[in-house]
Automatic annotation (TrEMBL):
The keyword Electron transport does not apply. Keywords: Cytoplasm, Hydrolase, Microtubule. It holds the Pfam family UCH. It comes from Loxia curvirostra. The gene is Cyld_1. GO terms for cellular component: microtubule; spindle. This is CYLD hydrolase. The keyword Ubl conjugation does not apply. Residues 24-204 form the Peptidase C19 ubiquitin carboxyl-terminal hydrolase domain. GO terms for molecular function: cysteine-type deubiquitinase activity.
Length: 227
């Protein structure tokens, strides 16, 4: 018999199970970077469920089991995960990684994702990016970098991704199976935006390399691109 699985929460079920006090992933000892990442990756989407079940070549089955049975399944079943379960995962990551501070320090979510996806589960990179005609680079998530934008007070994710790609002269080489985006709203000291509105759908048409697009003047297939 295989491991138990619970589907991600959708629509009314998501509201019923996840809304209210003592819901979500309990924070403890600077775990917010991991709590937020795990909640985003698994609570309401199945796009990364292969992380929970696939026997990847380098896969550490112990870490995979903790992730599935102590964090994702309880979150989807009851809407709540104890801090002790996340600490169990953090202890395992500390053992497996080259970093001793996963159990007590605040980390960059990208560091956590790279460790668990690449070193512990052995998953292929999710994104292929190209900057200004340079060599392709592969990664697991995209962190939004941008200068202060005076005209954006409460931006949505679509605006932030487009402006960030434009300022870095970046393009997606292909449509990603999963597009994990880190918002510019982390860390204790400085928040660029007080709020960011989630875009429920992301239009990546203009972010794709060599993708046919229509001319904004005549409506035919465009032959030139102006930033």
């Amino acid at each position: 018999e295989g491991p138990e699985s619970f589907p991600p929460l959708r629509n009314e079920a998501a509201v019923r199970v996840l809304q209210g006090r003592m819901k979500g992933i309990q924070g403890h000892c600077n775990s917010c970077y991991m709590d937020a990442a795990l909640f985003s990756l698994f609570s309401c989407t199945s796009v990364l469920d292969s992380m929970l079940f696939m026997p990847f070549p380098l896969c550490d089955r112990n870490v995979q089991g903790i992730l599935r049975d102590e964090i994702v399944n309880p979150l989807r079943r009851t809407g709540f995960v104890r801090a002790s379960s996340v600490m169990h995962l953090r202890e395992q990551l500390t053992d497996k990684g080259q970093c001793s501070s996963f159990t007590n320090a605040e980390k960059d979510p990208e560091e956590f994702l790279n460790l668990i996806m690449q070193q512990i589960l052995g998953i292929e990179p999710l994104l292929k990016l190209q900057s200004g005609g340079q060599k392709e680079q592969e990664c697991y998530c995209y962190q939004i970098f941008m200068d202060q934008q005076e005209d954006l007070v409460v931006p949505d994710v679509q605006q932030l991704v487009e402006r960030s790609f434009l300022s870095s002269d970046l393009k997606l080489v292909e449509i990603p199976s999963c597009f994990i985006i880190q918002m510019p709203r982390f860390g204790k000291e400085y928040k660029m935006f007080s709020k960011i509105i989630p875009s429920l759908e992301l239009d990546i048409t203009d972010l794709l390399l060599d993708s046919p697009r229509e001319c904004c003047l005549c409506g035919d297939v465009a032959t030139l691109e102006c930033s």
